[in-house]
Amino acid sequence: MLRHLVSLSTIATISLASMYSQDQLFLGQVQQSGNPFDESTHELFVNPWFSQEVLASKTLTDDQKQKLKDISAAFWVDTEYAISTRVPSLKTLLDKAAEKAKTTSKKQTVVFIHYNLPNRDCAASASNGEICCSGNAPDPNSGSCDDQSYTGGECSKGLAKYHSYTDKVVSLLENYPDLEIVALVEPDSLPNLATNLGQKPHCTQTTADAYVQGVTYAISQLAKLPHVSMYLDVAHGGWLGWCGTHPCSQDTECGSGNMCLRGTCECPPEQQSQNAQKFVSTIKGIFNNVGQDAQSRVRGFATNTANYQPLGYPDDNDHCQLKSQWNFAWNELRYMDQMDALMKKNGISKHWITDTGRNGVPESRSDANQCAQWCNVKSGLGLRPTSNVSALQQQLRSAQIDAVIWSKTPGESDGCSPGSSQKCTRVDYMCQRDCNSQFQKCPAPEAGQWDDDMIRYLVDHARPSL
Ligand SMILES: *[C@@H]1O[C@H](CO)[C@@H](O)[C@H](O)[C@H]1NC(C)=O
After folding, report:
1. Phi first, then psi: what are they for 384, rounded to 5°?
2. Which CATH number characterizes residue 110's domain?
3. Could you tell me the distance, in angstroms and rounded to a whole number, from the CA of residue 388 to the centre of ligand 1?
């Protein structure tokens, strides 16, 4: 589902920064008061359908089921159907949370993923969406939109559908003012623009404009609700952590043979594209578009959503050997610090959350090529969701971390991989690439479907143990 790029060659040539007038930027210094995850006053609401899936498992032991069933994972609103029609839907989830809220003094925190942009997931084929810029539906076999959607130069029909999706989410959320609601906004979208614009056939300028306008709209509308806070997706260190983001004061902080130049580790010539800076410029442009009030409702940034990049605690080792490729963000603690420094240099000061659902075994992948694998990696559950991050905070130079959370539900597939027990309508190359290795789970069901063997694997290899 989610891209993990470690290629040195994905250098976009079109600068998004030029889309914005630099002199009108509002720079985000305003901080909201509260951490929506603060467990002294809040409780992460547990998705009852996750509990049901766990309890119905044929692979987990009774003991494992009891320990797993009450752990919270985010809810993906990846279609309009998932807002209030499907069961479970965001509506049924919020209804259950509102019921629970009546029985406890702590505020219930519900995390959902706002995920339905036009031409969604332009670099991939496992998690394409339902909205095309042309207004037509995607091809059911390939998941792709028609050519007009990618090259037509405008997206008014697709954006109208996205506005309708967003409006429906907002008017639903309005009914639950006593819940603490967290929106994780559009995983992969803006990172794709930083590295894949002009590099992947569907990551075109038309798609880029649609993403920027869509995310701008989502933030503006969600910001109207005082009980909703937002985190924007910022990929992970294996994607946007390449050099140019690593602050340093001396050469030795840049790996052997690399120089510290003007406060940043030097880049080799082929890495001068400054993807991370490009990404931050996109965020700045969007914050400028939405204005000061709305951008102050963006509490922070979310990393590693649905990915497997190690957290970096307690083990800080460079298992993916990223340093040899000029990436100093070989785990998420390092990545949050690097991005935080770059954001602050650009006048943006926010908080951080990171997905630890499935990154418990940092050595599950062992070089940059393996670490590009994002589909059904045989890892283990990572840290349990918590706002007690004092041990992590001590490792961080400047980033302020609100919580670690489970953004992707462990046990749900990243994408289909065929096999005797499994037929697939669509197969992303990555979901088959490492089937003959020890670290990819094959066969596997369609993206989002429960995989009862995978959950047992993740639980058996959990760190800390369940
Ligand atoms: C927070 O976590 C630390 C270990 O990282 C632990 O020692 C402490 O007791 C925890 N605090 C609470 C309130 O749970």
Report:
1. -70, 150
2. 3.20.20.40
3. 6
Q: Indicate the SS3 state at residue 340.
A: helix
Tokens (6 digits) for 61: 């032991």
Query: Is 367 marked active-site?
Result: no
- For residue 68, being part of any structural domain is answered with yes
The answer to whether the CB of 123 falls within 8 A of the CB of 192 is: yes
Cα 269 to ligand 1 centroid, rounded to whole Å: 45
SS3 287: helix
Q: How many domains does the chain have?
A: 1
Q: How far is Cα 299 from Cα 228, in angstroms, rounded to an integer? A: 10
Mean pLDDT of the region 334-355: 94
CB burial of 22-49 (b: ≥16 within 10 Å; e: otherwise) equals eeebbebeeeeeebbbbeeebbbbbbbe
6 in a domain, yes or no?
A: no
- CB contact at 8 A, 159 and 118: yes
- Give the Cα separation of 160 and 424 in Å (integer): 31
CA distance 281 to 273: 13
Per the rule left: phi > 0, alpha: psi between -120 and 50, beta: everything else, 307 is: beta
Instruction: Please give the single-letter amino acid code of residue 186.
Output: E
Ligand 1: which residue has its CA nearest to atom 13?
388
**Total-model pTM:** 0.91
Q: Closest Cα to residue 146, out of 154, 156, 157, 136?
A: 136
Active-site residue (options: 233, 337, 414, 434): 414
* Residue-number span of the structural domain to which 25 is assigned: 16-460
Q: Residue with the nearest Cα to atom 14 of ligand 1?
A: 388
Residue 340 resides in a domain: yes
Q: Hey, CA dihedral for 21, 23, 24, 30, is it positive or negative? A: positive
The alpha carbon of 67 and the centre of ligand 1 are apart by a number of angstroms equal to 19
> Three-state SS for 182?
strand
3 in any annotated domain: no
- pLDDT digit string (tens) for 40-96? 999 999 999 999 999 999 999 999 999 999 999 999 999 999 999 999 999 999 999
Dig out the tokens for 375 from the structure.
Answer: 């589909």
Cα(416)–Cα(387) distance, integer angstroms: 33
Residue 296 and residue 345 in contact, taking contact as beta carbons nearer than 8 Å: no
Residues of the chain with pLDDT > 90, as a percent, come to 77
Q: Clarify whether 146 is annotated catalytic.
A: no
Q: Which of 105, 70, 17, 95 is nearest to 283 (CA)?
A: 17
Helix residue spans in 174-249 (DSSP H)? 189-195, 205-222, 237-240
**Residue 210 contacts residue 192 (beta carbons within 8 Å):** no
The label of the residue with tokens 């959902």 reads 112
Q: 181 - beta bridge partners?
A: 110, 228
Residue 386 CB less than 6 A away from ligand 1: no
Q: Is the pLDDT of residue 3 over 50?
A: no
